[in-house]
């Protein structure tokens, strides 16, 4: 049967996907997926990483073509060969990773995506109008590199709105926002929905889905497993639908006293090599044995530079700026710090923490060539490295396709378990991790977080740099926030709440939020 | 119906080996078409180019002699390319090796000592190494693009050689011909069999290929080189000093090109001439890729390239084709090898049209 009426008849949905199947080689990313989006609703698309959400929306936006199934727009079958087809119908998309030119202004970036004869000045005028109308503050003449991630997202939203869309697809829009910025976004979305624009909202944050979405479709391993009204569900019941099982709660650390200071940073300031990078200003903190310090912050506020300085990837000039177990290490490189018992896990899984085309045993060598005894006299002990890889695979339940596969063949969550597990293996005294569970499924995230808590319980100092406030509240003993390259004071976790953390992430510092309590 | 490239989960081991074979096949097909257009029977053309060079003992020796500089240079270049360092100037490093080594050989004159030859070889290696150090330092210190600097330095080196053999190094007893005196007997690479053309340089090439085939997968150095090429940020995270590695691969490849240069003038030519290479330094780039940047692969690729050089000469004589046709073949081959490499990471699938609904 096909719907024949058009325009707004209530029983004809705005967009309908029927039996969408998409295969990549042997992997079926979407398996006969059905989806119905009605006019003016905020529709959540829920699922773990790798559940097939991104594939589905890429099909709906014309980036991918399905192997089977079809898409109906107001009841009529359509074929989306390219994003231009989708845009012509009134489908807009705000991507998770923005495609913006940092050296151009807001208006110039938007003009680039429009037909060639559009004038930048005209665009700037429209941007002002839209940003005023929807309460999305955005200066069209500012250069993108000066903008926060939240502002950059606004560019994408405004770019979308300029095309008068009927349906906006948003891929994890709050992943990069502070709680306060997210609140503003929700207002805008609710207002748009009120005007009849539908929103397909991809997220794995259940609380916000419950808050703004009226319908949810849940994907698991490429299949639709449930369609529900999220407002009538609990976060736990939604999570069960997504994962298909109860997720083990991370066991909170038992009461334990903190030991001596194992990592101290005093007056760390840097000038970035990259002109678009963030300078660090006078960062000081201490982490004691047994303590997990969570450093919250919105991406691009100096986290990368902080990780590079803490790890010794970019050493600093004064040795006494940083100390591991009391020994100054400011000038020491990453391998010297590893030899002193420190371990590091950078944010980028592929390309930094691991090399996609290297086997897991070779990836063991990346961080372990100095400390794991797998290299002697310049020769690699391949068997030893394989043994270590197997050990990490077993201990952290890394799901692999073969005995020693290439890193690139692992799913994000499994690779991250390997990357973190590789560092945990030798029980480092100090460990610094950046976004340890970013883009990782809930099951893997729980394993990783538990490993960090357990490591701290053994007397190690753990620093977790994370954008994910839930994660920080789950595992940290003390919390600080980084904003524009400055670190707030460190607060004990039990004195923190979401709102306070959000303010610190937004750069509102101690004097305005109450007295600074150094976690003593 | 349409074709679609589909990403593979892991790189295909079969295709890693098969891709050069397919590329060679396609080159032969393209060559056959070329011969047809030129009015030559394709079978005869291909026989002359690729089969005739290995049919006599003399030309088979010649194939080995021409292959060895290609192999030596390509081995060095394979290190650079694996580390994502684009040394395009091996021809210049080869030339400088020949100049410095040749200059020392001429300075020794007829002085006889078993140490003369090693000294000449070391000078040759040093010449190539120093010439490579220029773009290497420009890259590590000033972030200059090494493709441009190494390539431009090649022409400086070629003109320098030209100047030297017409000026300071010209043979005073040479009737003003632009060439140096012949090297003394103790500065000449010994031949492997009396009367043959094979000299010690051939052994250098093959021996080094074997050493590298063993060392690259088993040493930390080899691992570092691959890491830098695959993921520079991962190399930083591993604490492999990037600048040091760039210098290392540049200097090694320059040194090997220099060794190839001095081996050629000391083993094959016996003196310095204005032109001492049919473009070995550039052809070696193709050899390196055709050989999958793998030492054993490079040996085979060097032999194939060398055959096409000799075949080109044969074709010039027998078929009246210009010598540059050999270069056209080399171009074909590089083009096809790069295209076929796609198959290592992607598989080709024929898609049936979707059933209309």
UniProtKB/TrEMBL annotation, chain A:
InterPro entries: AAA+_ATPase (IPR003593), ABC_carbohydrate_import_ATPase (IPR050107), ABC_transporter-like_ATP-bd (IPR003439), ABC_transporter-like_CS (IPR017871), P-loop_NTPase (IPR027417). It comes from the Bacteria. Its main location: membrane. It is found in: Cell membrane. The keyword Metal-binding does not apply. GO terms for cellular component: plasma membrane. Coiled coil: none annotated. The keyword tRNA processing does not apply. One of its GO terms (molecular function) is ATP hydrolysis activity. It is a peripheral membrane protein. SUPFAM superfamilies: P-loop containing nucleoside triphosphate hydrolases (SSF52540). The lineage of its organism: Bacteria, Pseudomonadati, Pseudomonadota, Alphaproteobacteria, Hyphomicrobiales. Residues 15-246, 263-509 form the ABC transporter domain. Belongs to the ABC transporter superfamily. Keywords: ATP-binding, Cell membrane, Membrane, Nucleotide-binding, Repeat, Sugar transport, Translocase, Transport. This is ABC transporter ATP-binding protein. Pfam families: ABC_tran (PF00005). PANTHER family: CARBOHYDRATE TRANSPORT ATP-BINDING PROTEIN MG119-RELATED, GUANOSINE IMPORT ATP-BINDING PROTEIN NUPO.
UniProtKB/TrEMBL annotation, chain B:
It is found in: Cell membrane. Keywords: Cell membrane, Membrane, Transmembrane, Transmembrane helix. The keyword Glycoprotein does not apply. InterPro entries: ABC_transp_permease. It comes from the Bacteria. It is a multi-pass membrane protein. PANTHER family: ABC TRANSPORTER, PERMEASE PROTEIN (PTHR47089), GUANOSINE ABC TRANSPORTER PERMEASE PROTEIN NUPP (PTHR47089:SF1). CDD domains: TM_PBP1_transp_TpRbsC_like. The chain crosses the membrane at residues 21-43, 63-81, 93-111, 117-138, 147-165, 198-216, 237-260, 272-291, 298-317, 329-348. GO terms for cellular component: plasma membrane. One of its GO terms (molecular function) is transmembrane transporter activity. This is ABC transporter permease.
């Amino acid at each position: 049967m096909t719907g024949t009426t058009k325009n707004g008849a209530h029983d004809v949905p705005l967009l309908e996907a029927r039996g969408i199947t998409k295969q990549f080689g042997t992997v079926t990313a979407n398996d006969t997926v059905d989806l119905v989006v009605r006019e003016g609703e905020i529709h959540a698309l829920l699922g773990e990483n790798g559940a097939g959400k991104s594939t589905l929306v890429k099909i709906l936006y014309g980036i991918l073509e399905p192997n089977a199934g079809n898409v109906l727009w107001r009841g009529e079958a359509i074929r989306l060969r390219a994003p231009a087809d989708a845009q012509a119908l009134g489908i807009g998309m705000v991507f998770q990773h923005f495609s913006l030119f940092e050296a151009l202004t807001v208006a110039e970036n938007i003009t680039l995506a429009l037909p060639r004869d559009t004038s930048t000045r005209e665009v700037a005028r429209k941007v002002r109008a839209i940003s005023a109308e929807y309460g999305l503050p955005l200066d069209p003449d500012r250069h993108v590199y000066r903008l926060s991630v939240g502002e950059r997202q606004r560019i994408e939203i405004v770019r979308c709105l300029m095309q008068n869309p009927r349906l906006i697809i948003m891929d994890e829009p709050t992943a990069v926002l502070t709680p306060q910025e997210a609140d503003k976004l929700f207002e805008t979305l609710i207002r748009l929905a009120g005007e009849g624009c539908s929103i397909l909202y991809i997220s794995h944050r259940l609380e916000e889905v419950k808050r703004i979405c009226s319908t949810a479709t849940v994907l698991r391993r490429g299949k639709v497993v449930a369609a529900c009204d999220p407002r009538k569900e609990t976060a736990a019941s939604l999570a069960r639908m997504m994962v298909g099982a109860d997720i083990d709660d991370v066991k909170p650390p038992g009461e334990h006293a903190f030991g001596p200071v194992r990592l101290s940073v005093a007056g760390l300031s840097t000038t970035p090599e990259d002109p678009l990078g963030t300078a660090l200003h006078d960062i000081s903190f201490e982490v004691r044995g047994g303590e997990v310090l969570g450093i919250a912050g919105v991406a691009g506020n100096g986290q990368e530079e902080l990780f590079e300085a803490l790890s010794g990837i970019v050493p600093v000039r004064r040795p006494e700026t940083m100390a591991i177990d009391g020994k100054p290490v400011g000038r020491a490189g990453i391998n010297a710090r590893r030899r002193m018992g420190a371990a590091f896990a950078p944010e980028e899984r592929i390309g930094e923490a691991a090399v996609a085309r290297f086997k897991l045993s070779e990836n063991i060598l990346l961080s372990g060539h100095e400390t794991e005894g797998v290299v002697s006299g310049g020769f690699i002990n391949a068997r030893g490295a394989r043994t270590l890889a197997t050990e990490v695979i077993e201990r952290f339940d890394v799901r692999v396709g073969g005995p020693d596969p290439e890193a690139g063949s692992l799913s994000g969550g499994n690779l991250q378990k390997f990357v973190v597990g590789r560092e945990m293996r030798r029980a480092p005294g100090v460990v610094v991790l950046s976004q340890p569970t970013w883009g990782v499924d809930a099951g893997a995230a729980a394993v990783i977080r538990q490993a960090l808590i357990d490591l701290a319980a053994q007397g190690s100092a753990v620093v977790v740099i994370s954008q994910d406030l839930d994660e920080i509240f789950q595992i940290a003993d003390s919390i600080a926030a980084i904003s524009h390259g400055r670190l707030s004071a460190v607060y004990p976790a039990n004195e923190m709440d979401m709102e306070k953390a959000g303010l610190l992430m937004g750069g509102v510092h101690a004097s305005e939020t109450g007295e600074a309590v150094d976690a003593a | 119906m349409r074709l679609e490239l589909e990403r593979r989960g892991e790189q295909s081991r079969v295709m890693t080996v098969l891709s050069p074979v397919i590329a060679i096949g396609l080159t032969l097909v393209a060559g056959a078409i070329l011969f047809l257009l030129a009015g030559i029977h394709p079978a005869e053309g291909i026989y002359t180019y690729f089969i005739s060079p290995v049919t006599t003992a003399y030309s088979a020796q010649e194939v080995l002699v021409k292959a060895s500089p290609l192999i030596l240079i390509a081995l060095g270049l394979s290190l650079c390319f694996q580390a994502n360092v684009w040394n395009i100037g091996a021809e210049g490093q080869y030339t400088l090796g020949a100049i410095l080594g040749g200059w020392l050989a001429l300075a020794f004159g007829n002085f006889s000592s078993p140490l003369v030859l090693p000294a000449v070889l070391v000078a040759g290696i040093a010449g190539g190494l120093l010439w490579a150090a220029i773009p290497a330092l420009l890259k590590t210190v000033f972030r200059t693009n090494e493709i441009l600097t190494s390539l431009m330095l090649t022409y400086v080196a070629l003109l320098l050689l030209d100047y030297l053999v017409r000026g300071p190094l010209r043979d005073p007893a040479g009737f003003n011909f632009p060439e140096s005196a012949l090297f003394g007997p103790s500065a000449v690479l010994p031949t492997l069999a009396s009367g043959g053309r094979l000299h010690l340089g051939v052994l250098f090439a093959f021996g080094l290929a074997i050493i590298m085939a063993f060392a690259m997968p088993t040493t930390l150095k080899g691992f570092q080189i691959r890491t830098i090429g695959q993921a520079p940020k991962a190399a930083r995270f591993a604490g492999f000093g990037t600048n040091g590695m760039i210098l290392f691969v540049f200097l090694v490849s320059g040194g090997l090109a220099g060794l190839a240069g001095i081996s050629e003038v000391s083993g094959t030519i016996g003196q310095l001439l204005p032109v001492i290479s049919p473009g070995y330094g550039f052809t070696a780039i193709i050899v390196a890729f055709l050989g999958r940047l793998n030492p054993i692969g490079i040996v085979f690729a060097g032999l194939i390239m060398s055959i096409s050089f000799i075949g080109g000469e044969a074709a010039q004589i027998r078929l009246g084709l210009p010598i540059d046709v050999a270069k056209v073949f080399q171009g074909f081959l590089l083009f096809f090898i790069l295209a076929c490499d796609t198959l290592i990471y992607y598989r080709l699938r024929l898609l049936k049209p979707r059933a209309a609904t």
